[in-house]
Amino acid sequence: MAEAKSNKVNMKTLAKVLNVSIATISKALRDSHDIGEETKQRVIETAKLLHYVPNPYASSLRKRSSNTIAIIIPEIADSFFSQAINGIESIVGQEKYHALIYLTHDSYEREAQMFNDLSSGRVDGVLMSVASNTKDIKHIQELQQAGVPIVFFDRVCEDIPTAKIKTDDFNSAYMATKHLLERGCKNISLVTIEGYPFILQAREGGYKKALAEYQIKHQEQNVISCSNKYNQENIAFLKEHIAKIKPDGIIATVEHLATTTYLACEELKMNIPNDVKVVCFTNQITAAILNPPLTTVLQPAYDMGRKAAELLFGHLAGKPIQLEKENITLPSKLVVRDSTRATD
Amino acid sequence: MAEAKSNKVNMKTLAKVLNVSIATISKALRDSHDIGEETKQRVIETAKLLHYVPNPYASSLRKRSSNTIAIIIPEIADSFFSQAINGIESIVGQEKYHALIYLTHDSYEREAQMFNDLSSGRVDGVLMSVASNTKDIKHIQELQQAGVPIVFFDRVCEDIPTAKIKTDDFNSAYMATKHLLERGCKNISLVTIEGYPFILQAREGGYKKALAEYQIKHQEQNVISCSNKYNQENIAFLKEHIAKIKPDGIIATVEHLATTTYLACEELKMNIPNDVKVVCFTNQITAAILNPPLTTVLQPAYDMGRKAAELLFGHLAGKPIQLEKENITLPSKLVVRDSTRATD
DNA sequence: TTTATTTGCTTAAACGTTTACTTAAACTGT
DNA sequence: ACAGTTTAAGTAAACGTTTAAGCAAATAAA
């Protein structure tokens, strides 16, 4: 058990032990044709015996590639993103890559800062959901022009020509709204958050389309934009809106708005679904045990993350994938529960 | 705008442009005493102008340190871990470090594999929660002996002499149990998951202590061990237990067991809190809007992550921190809601 | 004035790999 | 037997930093 001293064992060590050159070690470990079968075996054996693990930084420096990707997302305490990471990780691990994680907290400045750092060659590729207040996309363009492939998921940047994995925001909002209309709602509010022009535009579009189909005139005041964090002020803000507009249906477009909406309704003594019916975009398993159980738009978070990673790694592996041609939409699912139960 | 060609600009480029040596560039950028003030400014200016970003791999190779840490956790789709990552990230970002994320999925084999990789010098330190089925800790010992500092949070490994950030599992389980006893429960089940001897031992200990104080004899059959994933089989398994034991109180020790427990009770037509009162260890904000609102043991996830990161970075920065002496316990909080409302 | 010291910079080696190029020996076919 | 090819190695440069050591000129101390 004493064969492996804590002194770093590197190729030089192995070369010395085996009395061959460093090049032989390197080639043997990468299974090069240059090296004889017997030598290869000897190298592999002693490498294992001495617990040799290659230095990734030397390798990355020389090869100009790092076997590392970056995951850049706005936040992590959200079931959509954590499930998406699970999907990403399922590929990253399998491909023996490493994943750096960066949280922008929806700040453009941090995002730009991160991209600046990444232009160093730190990563071979990027998987990202853009920050809500990113308007200027120069940082993304520059990284892409520097040759780092980028794949967007969920919160994509339409103006960058690369792969985008989205869910059908327009359609799922349309379905959700139609569902409320079918259940008799006539005055539906759309509760969104600041930022995310594309996604929110799509959801608002689907919402409006459904209204139009039911000959309901859309009112600007029925669309309310909260701040993107769960707190007391948000609840108060929403309460005010509900008290004023008295909607009979609410579509909450992000996860934490479910709690905000339920608490606001409770404080206003408005019963769900009798006084107001609620649908929320969320992936939380607790939706089923809420009071009442919440009708949700369930997004394919895991699959989106996985698909995004598959495209990126396919590209990195040199497969003939034209990232800019990949524009994939995975369907969300409306899961109907009691928060939109028919009442009358 | 044409000053920065996409050709990688490195120290050599800067040296050529400014007609000084590479060493001067390096030292100027690191604000060395060796370099004159005027030269420093010129270097910094042109570096900015040409969008120079240092190559992290060259730097890491030479300095034998990577400005990177590893976060190793069992899973990520769990509010405790995602909040803990938020806490960690708050320090990582501020210290200009980078964080690699690894998910063990509670598998010892993957964990050991990851540690093996990390012995390459890939990271300067590790923040981790150990996998549930990790019994053999040789991989952890070896990395530590190789000089990589490790800080545990939540799911610690008691046999490794290093910093451990825990929450008071014993006491919070004790409080939760006592709370149920005060509310009149006489037959309390503890629902746990497989693995995690230390944490579960502590929680079971607290549970037993409370029972003892109330002169209730502990029954082995009241402790049930589910599998650590949310699915239908788990619900069925728990239903069976509840049907057999007919507990009037349940303590669910991990987040996803809340949903499992609620659904099991619902299927058995057992009313919470009338027929059975429920407490769960969870950090989800939806606890407040469940049916009924769930009494929770709220763990200081963010603070635990943050504290763990603080210790690690303090150590890395050379502060006089003796990691092996740090054994910190942050209190959890019992948040009482309707799932344990007094009835009778 | 002479000797130390400081200032500001350069030289060159090192970190641990990978790889283009070279080389010597062994095999091939004629 | 000999030119040509294949096989199995080795040599050395390169990746982009950091840093110990050196050195000339300027400054300070005696």
From TrEMBL, chains A, B:
It comes from the Bacteria. InterPro entries: HTH_LacI, LacI/GalR-like_sensor, Lambda_DNA-bd_dom_sf, Peripla_BP_I. Keywords: DNA-binding, Transcription, Transcription regulation. PROSITE patterns: HTH_LACI_2 (PS50932). Residues 9-63 form the HTH lacI-type domain. Coiled coil: none annotated. PANTHER family: HTH-TYPE TRANSCRIPTIONAL REGULATOR GALS, LACI-RELATED TRANSCRIPTIONAL REPRESSOR. This is LacI family transcriptional regulator. It comes from Mucilaginibacter lappiensis. The lineage of its organism: Bacteria, Pseudomonadati, Bacteroidota, Sphingobacteriia, Sphingobacteriales.
